[in-house]
Amino acid sequence: MKPYFQSKAQELSFIGIVLFAFIAFYVETDIYTPTFPAMMSYFATNEQAIQLLISMNFLGLCLSSLFFGPASDAYGRKAILCTGLFIFMLGSFGCSLTSSFAWMVFYRLLQGLGCGAIVSAGLAMFFDVFTAEKSARLVALCNGLVGGLMALAPMIGNWIGLRWGWRVNFYLIAALVTLVFFAYLFYIKETLPKEKRTPLRVSTICRNYASLLSNFPFVAHNMIWCLTFSVIIVFIANLSLIFIDYLQVDKKIFGYYQASIMGAFFVGSLAGARLIKTRGMFRTKMIGNGFYLVGIMSLSILSFSHNESPNWLIASMTLASFGCAAAITISFSYSMNFIGDNLKGSAMSLTQSLRLLLTSGLIWIAAHYFDGSTIPMSLLAIVSSGISISLYACLYKRGMHFVRQTSITA
């Protein structure tokens, strides 16, 4: 069989283009959130409505992820990725040009629909052409880039918004995704041979998803980490509205507050990887969950005592973000150990959709009950944590709360 790469330079360019797609995806997620107050003023809308720009984007991503994963197994990675990137590109140009808030929400939904191809089929290209060990290293590299970008994006977006206005952030996203689209179109070859493809049958997809949804340990472990992660995203979505509009934090320094949450997430990811080697997966998960719960409890105490110090509030959110990052990858790994190899592809799509559905739902709830304080956000975090603890108790009772590390291959 002819090797996929003809030279080292070709291999490096392939890796760079795939990672560049993820950069475009994660930049569009939160680069514009620091400019929410300016966007509210431009579109003459309120706090509840402006957060539709996040929740509708996540909803589109959630829905398309369920389709693009199986579709890439049937029609190949390149065709699906180029289709998704084209949709993403259309949505990005729409966001950068529209003057209507209704159309802005629609274009954000379109961006989410297109991004589903990146999260479902993008990383699969690594596993198509590299060994499992090298693919794992590349996924780790991607996760590191994601953490760094999610920390930097709010600062960059805030600086751009102050200097040139909120719309320029969407010009930047449109430019990035256009470059990625043409790079895939002209420089990336198909990675999944026709003989390895599986027919796209609705009955098979539904049967696989039904099997996964009826698997309690798989669902419970994923619900725990998805709820935990969603709470952190709710923090980020509400931060500019609370800090700038209500606590009167200077716009010039706000980006640093928001970046600290994702910076803590990045550090927590690195610390978690280190702790797994020295303490094991179960202890690392417990340590991470401990930090997360302390952060949530601290935020709740500050909220209900009406302590509106930005530094104390951000310290609590940062602590929760650090703990979340250290623990969630372990819960995900546990969940994958309870399913067969033939369901792992569908499991990836379903897990991504579950995370996005929960995130968009929690953001909508937070927006609906938004009152300028951190109390609605804290209540949401408390309820989510309570559900997670209840699910963990059920897993513990069944002896499914952990998996021996030697049996986990991913």
From TrEMBL:
Q: Where in the cell is it found?
A: Membrane
Q: Superkingdom of the source? A: Bacteria
The UniProt entry lists membrane topology as: Multi-pass membrane protein
What's a Pfam family in this record? Answer: MFS_1
The answer to whether keyword rRNA-binding applies is no
- Transmembrane region(s): 12-29, 49-68, 80-103, 109-131, 138-162, 168-187, 224-244, 256-276, 288-306, 312-332, 353-370, 376-395
Start and end residues of each Major facilitator superfamily (MFS) profile domain: 14-396
Query: Does this entry carry the keyword Glycoprotein?
Result: no
A cellular component term from Gene Ontology for this protein is:
plasma membrane
Task: State any single GO MF term.
Answer: sodium:proton antiporter activity
Q: Which SUPFAM superfamilies match?
A: MFS general substrate transporter
- Keyword tags: Membrane, Transmembrane, Transmembrane helix, Transport
GO BP terms in the entry: xenobiotic detoxification by transmembrane export across the plasma membrane
- Output this protein's name: Bicyclomycin resistance protein
State the organism named in the record: Candidatus Berkiella aquae
| Gene behind this protein | bcr
